[in-house]
Write a structure and sequence with these properties.
The chain is mostly helical and 184 residues long. The chain has 2 domains: 6-90, Rna Polymerase Sigma Factor, Chain: A; 115-177, Arc Repressor Mutant, subunit A. 74% of the residues lie in helices and 0% in strands. The protein has 8 helices and no strands. The protein has helices at 6-14, 18-40, 46-62, 74-110, 117-128, 133-144, 149-156, 160-177. The longest helix is centred in the middle third of the chain and has 37 residues, at 74-110. The chain starts with 5 loop residues before the first helix and ends in a 7-residue tail after the last helix. Keywords: DNA-binding, Sigma factor, Transcription, Transcription regulation.
Length: 184
Amino acid sequence: MIRVKDIEIVEGLRKQDMLALHTVIDQYGDLIYKVVHSVLDTAHSKVLVDECVDDILLIVWYNINSYDENRGKFKNWLISVAKFKAIDYKRKSNKIYQLQEFQQEIYEEGKNIDPTKEERDCNFFVLIKELNEEDKKIFIKRYLDEYSIQEIALEFGMTRDTVYSRLSRGRKKLKKMLGGNRDE
């Protein structure tokens, strides 16, 4: 197979030439996959790795103009894009895992109890009264009104990471108040 020069690939990508993207996949697909797999390791599913690789290819396709040939080789730029996107995926995956773990704990603790919705809501409000006002509102939006993290972030003018952090700290505080002694 004849290797196309990186400069030709970059020019093709900048012209939105699909053949250039296929060339990236042919010449650098294995490298991108290895970088992603090394960050996400074996604990993460193949589906997540494949999804991350797909996102990286989209980033390359839509953000090729951020590549500056004077700052380094195209291959190195691809590696850094792959590495940082894989790290983002790892963070996201870990947050989702922690939330699922917390929800499972709550489920296990409460599966023998069958309170009415009003009782649950009342208990919820009693629990969150120790949180500051903004955290209370975030908890209500998330757990009673079932807003997504993105919706809460938009409504409160925060980043998604800030919302995740506030929910996490709030859950830890509530666990501590309830006598939970497990460190997270």
